[in-house]
């Protein structure tokens, strides 16, 4: 049988940048990010590099006519919805893009001038040429070092970044996002400046050197959201959220520092169904057992996080918990994401210490806790270090129970407080292991 086609029309995004044979930055990072964001990636390659995770071994800049031909070929055939620039390599290439900028919609300019190492990547005359390109940009996304080059300001804090952003807007750009990754501090603070607003985006700094491709990924993600029709502030917020996750769950490839995980959100979304099914499998296995001795009065909560979960709504759980009925332990309802926000926050806090921990089950607190838990195949910790406050947050309870540098626990004892039922939270990397550990506790108290 001949089947009927059903074509789709994703928004087209053009990236004008250099090629990274190592796959972590440049054209390769842009295309991965654009496609993961639901766009169709097209490209104009400005230079070809021989590089990997340990460094750049060589590069070759394409003739300006060849770069122009690529831009022309894409724009003549495709309905381009957004354009981003990366490594333009030389003044004549910057001039070329500036000359064509009027016909390039939603132009995001990532002024690749200063590497993460602090090395200058362009000659001074090429840096000066950026002023004309900036004047045509919908958004410019310099890191702090690049913003210093563009504005002559020292950038040591968010106020400095805002001032530099205003300078860039005065050059003609619609907006500037001055990135804070190169500014010292426990938090990364990015500052978005427009004619009318200054918006700061703050997130925790990840302790890693695997940030290769971060600037490319962020600018490509923002351009893709603009291509979808998002407003600027929303596109920037979405891009920053993606990058924060992409840096935390970076790609450990090669002998040097790894690259950011360009498709991390796409992969996390794809894992939602499997995660929900895994939680359902835990529930099914446990309810086939006589769980009465372990079901808390408030019910047994069962939760599972997606592989790259960062928020409670990315944790699936039994809606209404497992409760004791005349027919035995039964789930009140099905599994849904966001059903157990407190347990989700508890599990996410554990994952700050050990990201492989994906499943959690709350069990009744046995009379003899130590005897009940001694059969578990890993360390067991407790939050009973001093009086347990009734209003303690899940994050505070985990911080009290898990010391920095210690092995991640397989169970955490919460002794409870006035009005708060005590519990043992059993933790595991996989669904089957979660069941095995709960059954081990059950055997000990039966």
From TrEMBL:
Superkingdom of origin organism: Archaea
Domain Pyridoxamine kinase/Phosphomethylpyrimidine kinase: 20-261
Residue span(s) of domain Thiamine-phosphate synthase ThiN: 279-439
Keyword tags: Kinase, Transferase
Any one GO MF annotation of this record: phosphomethylpyrimidine kinase activity
InterPro entries: Aldolase_II/adducin_N_sf, HMP/HMP-P_kinase_dom, PM/HMP-P_kinase-1, Ribokinase-like, ThiN
EC number: 2.7.1.49, 2.7.4.7
Main enzyme class: transferase
Protein name: Bifunctional hydroxymethylpyrimidine kinase/phosphomethylpyrimidine kinase
């Amino acid at each position: 049988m001949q089947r009927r086609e059903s074509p789709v029309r994703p928004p087209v995004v053009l990236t004008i940048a250099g090629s990274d044979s190592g796959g972590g930055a440049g054209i390769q990072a842009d295309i991965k990010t654009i496609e993961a964001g639901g766009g169709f990636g097209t490209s104009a390659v400005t230079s070809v590099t021989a590089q990997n995770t340990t460094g750049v071994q060589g590069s070759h800049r394409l003739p300006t006519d060849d770069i122009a031909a690529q831009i022309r070929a894409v724009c003549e055939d495709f309905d381009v919805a957004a354009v981003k620039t990366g490594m333009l390599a030389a003044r004549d290439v910057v001039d070329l893009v500036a000359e064509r900028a009027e016909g390039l919609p939603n132009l995001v300019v990532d002024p690749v001038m200063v590497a993460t190492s602090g090395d200058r990547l362009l000659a001074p005359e090429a840096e000066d040429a950026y002023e004309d390109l900036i004047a045509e940009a919908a958004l410019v996304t310099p890191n702090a070092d690049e913003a210093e080059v563009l504005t002559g300001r020292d950038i040591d804090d968010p106020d400095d970044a805002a001032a530099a952003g205003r300078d860039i807007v005065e050059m003609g750009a619609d907006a500037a996002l001055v990135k804070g990754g190169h500014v010292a501090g426990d938090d990364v603070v990015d500052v978005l400046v427009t004619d009318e607003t200054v918006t700061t985006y703050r997130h925790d700094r990840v302790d890693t050197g695997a940030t290769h491709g971060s600037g490319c990924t962020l600018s490509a993600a923002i351009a893709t959201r603009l291509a979808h029709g998002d407003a600027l502030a929303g596109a920037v917020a979405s891009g920053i959220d993606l990058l924060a996750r992409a840096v935390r769950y970076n790609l450990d490839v090669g002998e040097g520092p790894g690259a950011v995980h360009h498709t991390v959100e796409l992969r996390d979304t794809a894992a939602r169904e499997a995660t929900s099914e895994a939680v359902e499998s835990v529930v099914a296995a446990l309810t086939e057992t006589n769980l009465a001795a372990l079901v808390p009065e408030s019910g047994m909560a069962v939760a599972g996080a997606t592989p790259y979960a960062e928020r409670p709504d990315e944790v699936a759980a039994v809606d209404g918990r497992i409760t004791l009925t005349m027919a035995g332990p039964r789930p009140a309802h099905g599994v849904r994401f966001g059903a157990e926000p407190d347990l989700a926050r508890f599990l996410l806090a554990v994952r700050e210490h050990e990201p492989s921990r994906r499943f959690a089950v709350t069990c009744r607190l046995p009379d003899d806790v130590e005897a009940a838990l001694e059969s578990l195949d890993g360390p067991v910790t407790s939050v009973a270090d001093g009086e347990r406050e009734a209003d303690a947050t899940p994050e505070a309870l985990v911080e009290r129970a898990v010391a920095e540098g210690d092995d991640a626990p397989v169970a955490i004892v919460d002794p409870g407080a006035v009005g708060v039922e005590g519990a043992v939270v059993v933790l595991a990397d996989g669904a089957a292991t979660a069941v095995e550990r709960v059954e081990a506790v059950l055997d000990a108290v039966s």
